[in-house]
Amino acid sequence: MIRPFRARHGRARATSGIVALVSLGLVLTACSQESGATSPDDVVGQGYVSGDGSVKTWDVSDRDEPVVLTGTDFEGGAVDTSQWLGDVVVVNTWYASCAPCRAEAPDLVALANDRAAEGVHLLGINSTDDAGAALAFERTFEVPYPSIEDTRGEAIATLEGAVPLQAVPTTVVLDREGRVAARVIGRAEGSTLGALVDDLLAESA
User: Fold this and answer.
1) CA nearest to 69, candidates 57, 83, 80
2) Where does it live in the cell (predicted)?
3) Domain range holding 153?
C-alpha cells in the first residue's frame, strides 16, 4: 500500500507536545488494508491507493548536496551511509504490512545480493514497525541489508530535505558522492532499479 508522507515541519511557535502528536499522526496515517497481505503478490484488491511506479532522475549538474543517513538498525547495529561514499546506495522506505513493499522485496533482495560486488549498497528506512514486525519481514524475505529504525522520523526528515517523499514505498538512489540521482514512487520494478544502478555505476568516480 502506498502511504503519503506529509510535511513534518510544524509552525515555529507550535508547542513540542503538539508537534509530537502531529508527527505521530503522520506516521500512523497509512493506506488502510482490507485484508492482510501474506505473499509478495498480494497487492491487487488489498485496499491500497497504489503509486504508479513513476521514476524521476536528476542529471549530474542538477543534483543537490550529498545526503548522509545515520541511525540504528533493528538488531541494534549502527548505520552511517557516509561509510559508503564512492559507491551507489539504494534507499527504500517500507513497513511490514505494506503490500507493495512486500511485492518489491524480492527484487530489492536480488539487487543487494547480485550487485554488492560492484559497490552497490541497499538501505531500508522503516518509520512504522517495532523490531518484532520488522525483523519478521526481514526473515521472511531473507533481507541481507540493514534498515534504520526510524519511528522518530529523523532519517526520513533528512531524506525529505533532499527529495520529496510522497508515499511508502519510495526508493531513492544516491550516486557515488551521496547525492540524490533518482527516485521511484511506489513499487520499484527490478528492471527499473537495475537500469538506474547501471547508469550510476557508469558514472566513473
Assistant:
1) 80
2) Cell envelope
3) 54-202
Residue 183 DSSP SS3:
strand
Q: List strand residue ranges (DSSP E) for 128-204, in order.
A: 147-149, 170-174, 180-185
> Is 60 within a domain?
yes
Q: How far apart are CA 159 and CA 72, in angstroms?
A: 16
State the total domains in the chain.
1
Here the CATH number for the domain that contains residue 152 is 3.40.30.10
Instruction: Print pLDDT tens along the chain (205 aa).
Output: 545 544 444 433 333 343 333 333 333 333 333 333 333 333 333 333 346 788 999 999 999 999 999 999 999 999 999 999 999 999 999 999 999 999 999 999 999 999 999 999 999 999 999 999 999 999 999 999 999 999 999 999 999 999 988 899 999 999 999 999 999 999 999 999 999 999 999 997 5
Q: What angle do CA 200, 102, 117 make, to 5 degrees?
A: 35
Q: Rounded to the nearest 10 degrees, what angle do helices 99-115 and 190-201 cross at?
A: 40
Asked whether residue 117 is domain-assigned, the answer is yes
